[in-house]
Design a protein that fits this description.
Layout (H helix, E strand, L loop, with lengths): L3 E6 L3 E9 L2 E9 L5 H15 L5 E6 L2 E2 L6 E2 L11 H9 L3 E5 H12 L7 E7 L3 E7 L2 E2 L19 E2 L4 E2 L14 H4 L1 H12 L5 H9 L3 H25 L4 E4 L6 H12 L11 E3 L6 H17 L1
Parallel strand pairs: 1-4, 4-7, 8-13, 13-14
Antiparallel strand pairs: 1-2, 2-3, 5-6, 8-9, 9-10, 11-12
């Protein structure tokens, strides 16, 4: 039986896992991520592989970055030693094994489609509402971004409404880290929620404090959540219309606030063409290591296709 080693590569830690089948994925330990030394980065992966006592048939990595589909170079600014590299080819040369690289949001979507809330759905859009906003798209069990690319990145593009809420209030086109203004990423994640609260009320509160006050019925926090849901629901509804997704599992820190997801779900379902009499925007089910799971599933599929 083939054995895959999957890795979840973050800015602070590298986590590993063993996968022999979809039903047999076992997390390993974690080690600090060497950010500035590629040789140390490779040695960290090698040490995790050595822990298993076996030689895998291939490795698969989930990374908070994007593979350029034309050059196969990785865009990963928070880990400089791998940024700009043809990482899959570099790792294949180091280990003598096939290597697969995928974006972490894509791996999240793959995990949810294969083993989570998207199980049984033909088209799954996985949405991330964490520090910022991300997403991935799986159709017929296949990741749309198998060769790299930006499909599913609904968090970027100058599309945020200039007014939102009931009654409407003017919303600035906030500058985004991608270089544009008015992206969903500027308002849809935890930092975006805090930014909205500051704009609306000139108050500096954490997202946790805003959510807590909203759940207690506090007026200003309630207003902020109303504006937040209005801003985020429209681009997510457009994403559902374009992709035809029949389920939208949500990950990231804000996904843990189920009343917020319920509000977002109601708003999205009211704005899409296809009508659902069940929840569409739902909490993710692969709550522990979706990056590891998604990378493992991609590795297993690649291995099966190679046989």
């Amino acid at each position: 039986m083939a054995m895959i080693i999957s890795f979840d590569i973050g800015g602070s830690a590298i986590k590993g896992g063993i996968a022999r089948s979809e039903a047999d994925i076992i997390p390993l330990g974690r080690r600090p991520t060497p950010k500035d030394d590629f040789a140390a980065f490779v040695d960290t992966l090698r040490a995790i592989i050595a822990e298993t006592g076996e030689k895998p048939s291939r490795i698969a990595l989930s990374i908070a970055g994007v593979v350029d589909p034309d050059t196969q170079r990785l865009i990963c600014a928070n880990i400089p030693c791998i940024h700009g590299r043809t990482l899959a080819a570099d790792l294949e040369a180091e280990f003598g094994l096939p290597a697969l690289i995928a974006n972490d949001a894509d791996c999240f979507a793959m995990a949810e489609a294969g083993l989570g809330a998207g199980l049984g759905h033909r088209i799954v859009f996985g949405a991330i509402l964490g520090t910022g906003v991300g997403g991935g798209l799986v159709a017929d069990g296949r990741l749309v971004n198998e060769a790299g690319g930006f499909a599913g990145e609904w968090g970027h593009g100058p599309i945020i409404a200039s007014a939102a809420g009931n009654p409407p209030v003017a919303i600035p086109a906030y500058a985004c880290g991608c270089g544009q203004k008015g992206c969903v990423d500027t308002v849809g994640g935890a930092r975006g929620l805090e930014r909205l609260h500051k704009t609306l009320h000139d108050l500096d509160f954490s997202s946790e404090e805003i959510i807590g006050q909203w759940r207690q019925g506090e007026e200003k926090a309630t207003r902020t959540i109303d504006v937040y849901v209005d801003l985020v629901a429209s681009p997510l509804a457009l994403t559902v219309n374009i992709t035809g997704a029949t389920i939208v599992p949500v990950g990231g820190g804000l996904s843990n606030v189920e009343p917020l997801l319920a509000e977002l779900d109601r708003a999205v379902r009211a704005r899409i063409l296809r009508k659902f009499d069940r929840p569409l925007v739902v909490p993710s089910q692969c709550r522990i290591e979706p990056g590891l799971i998604g990378a493992a599933l991609l590795g297993l599929k690649a291995e099966a296709a190679a046989v």
